[in-house]
Amino acid sequence: EGVWLPPEVAITLLQMYGIPVATTLSATSAKGAAQAAKKLGLPVVMKVRSSTIIHKTDVGGIILGLSSLRKVEQAFNSIVARLKELGREKEMEGVVLQSMASGGQEVILGMSQDPVFGPLVMVGLGGIQVEMIKDVAFFLHPLTDLEPDRMLHQLKSLPMLTGWRGSCPRDVDALKEVLLRFSALIEDFPEIDQIEINPLVVFDEGKGCTAVDARVLVKALTETE
Which segments constitute the ATP-grasp domain (predicted)? Predict the structure, then answer.
């Protein structure tokens, strides 16, 4: 067992290690959400804020492309209504809002603890694609400068990043740099039990990448600690 960090704390942790992140604000009311959206600039994406709802799309907890403050307020109310229908309204801690990260290829980065080998770093296609395609690569932590390239070359879907059927190549160098920074973060925080960035949006070559969503599970303290 452990504790899931609040989403804005998880995003801040990535920022501390130089991983580019989408600007994120939180709100606990429809009016507060509209004020946050005004600060960010439209359009925005809204996501339910909850430490227990892991797959937000399954409960209608992600609404994209909100292009007016009225739509932002309506989106907040629709998430509340949907969770009430499911009997899960008590799990809602509010919402988070972000500027829309348009275009780019979604990638997932993760780390889980193996009982034999310790931390394993994972990379693969992100968003809902990771569950459909299951094309991911694992490597023992910590990563050296050579490992990100080796990991990416294990992916059957690598052409979607390097350019496929005339599509523009993505910023693979920026992705490799994020993998190394991700590994450094894991090295410095042994109390992290699981961490996932999903999605990390990798833009066209030379345009970098942005972490849009992150989850961090911190190990529970034992009595001796």
Answer: 11-47
